[in-house]
Amino acid sequence: MEYIKVDKEKCGLCGGCVAVCPAKVIIMYKDRLEIRDGCLKCDKCIKVCPVGALSKNG
Amino acid sequence: MDKNYDVIIVGGGPAGLYAAYKIEKSYKVVLFEKDDVIGEPIICAEGISNNTLKQFFKESDLPFIRNRFSKLKVKYKDLEANVDIPDMGLIIDRSKFEKYIADKVKKENNFEIKTGSFVVDAKIENDHVKVILENGEEYFGKILIIADGVESYLPNKVGINSVCNLIDMYSCYQQIIHDPKVKDEEIIFDFTPSVAPGGYLWVFPRGNNEANFGLGITSSLDCEKPYKLLNEYREKNYPDAKILREFPGCVSVNQLSRMYTDRVMVIGDSARAADPITGGGIDNALRTANFAAIVANSVLKGKDFSAKRMSQYQELVEKDNSYSIKKQNQLREMILKMSEEELDQFFTSAINLFNGKKILSTDFYSTIYSFKSSFKAIGMVINFMGSLMKDKYLLKVIMRLMWK
Question: What is the pTM of this model?
Answer without folding.
Answer: 0.91
